[in-house]
Specification:
- The protein has eleven helices and eleven strands.
- By secondary structure, it is α/β, with parallel strands linked by helices.
- The protein folds into two domains: 1-30 and 193-238, no CATH class; 32-185 and 240-391, Alkaline Phosphatase, subunit A, CATH 3.40.720.
- Helix 4 (96-103) runs parallel beside helix 10 (286-311), helix 7 (193-206) packs antiparallel against helix 8 and helix 9 (254-265) packs parallel to helix 10.
Amino acid sequence: MDRRTFITSTSMSFLGALSGVSDFALAQTPLKIKAATQNGPLIILFLRGGADGLGILSPLDDVNFQAARSPQMRFDPTISPVFKGKMNWYWHPSAAPLSQLMDAKRLVPWHAVGLTNETRSHFEAQEIMERGVDSLQMIPDAYGMISRVAAQNGMKNNTFLYAGSNNLPRAMQGNFSALAVRDLQNGVPFPGGVDNLKILEELVLRDKNHPAASSIQTTLENLNKIQEILLQGEKKVKPYESAGSSPYPNNDPGVGLRSVARLIQANIGLQYAWVDHGGWDMHEGEPQRLNNVLGQLSQGLFAFDQDMQAQNKKYTMVVMTEFGRRFRSNQSNGTDHGHGGLAMILGSQIPKAQMMGSWPGLNEADLDRSVDLAVTTPYQDVINQALQWGRMI
């Protein structure tokens, strides 16, 4: 194997082991990372799999809901109801931290959110949302949603897009530098340690004319820059500790949110971030599974908000999913792919502590295809609202 082939294969293997750093857009023009003043980032937390919004924030008093969900799929209200008109809503017991955030005017829920497209396919729905469009037949450019928003809002070339996940989302496809590393607790996870990093750097320096050399070199420089920032002059990166009263849980999405918090604390000018949270596709055994995954989400969000408040750091976050679940539970105590879902906006300056959106109702005539919660708010409207509130900061 010649050196040029070795550089290509070695570099891609090396970057591929970096928990998503392989998705650092080598086809783009990477940008150097520079210190900047923190401006309050927009963060997207994506619940992959289609979260059951009606199970998270439930209309327990609605006779249609009572008839549609088996007793195992409902819960006894333990939290004060959320009011919207004449309707009472109740947070799932595992969502108690979300109820606290709402009471503190740090969170707004938004029911009946989703795609105007009728797809129930995970892959198609996620692709549509991450591209920021209504249909894959009408894609205006090669940008992902976050890259397009960043370009439209004048994102500077001295920062980068960051995903606290194992893979870079399609939402960050575009012309900005982008980096995906799920866990920065002990710094950037160089496979094989610093020695392997130096070997790759040396290989790139010896063949600067290789087509990938410039991009790989800039990627490595950016990774080294992050490492230097996290080291803070020490020989070893110290584990990040929340400034808030609640520690981050060591599971998703808490790990990714902790990594986002670490970069916000470092004041490197982070403007846009993304965190994935999987496990929401619950065709069977939903009661126990929802307890677990919703508990992880609630605790992670609460810890992040407590951390940001304690540091006086500003942020705006959208929690969204590709679609909701079927209105009626199935025979396996699960829910199949649905339509309208639940979104949430969290942040430093939420002007109201009430439910947003237009509730379509659960009578059969009001349901989409007579089986699913209808969509009354396109997902783009939620993101636009979050951006508007973020500008108020």
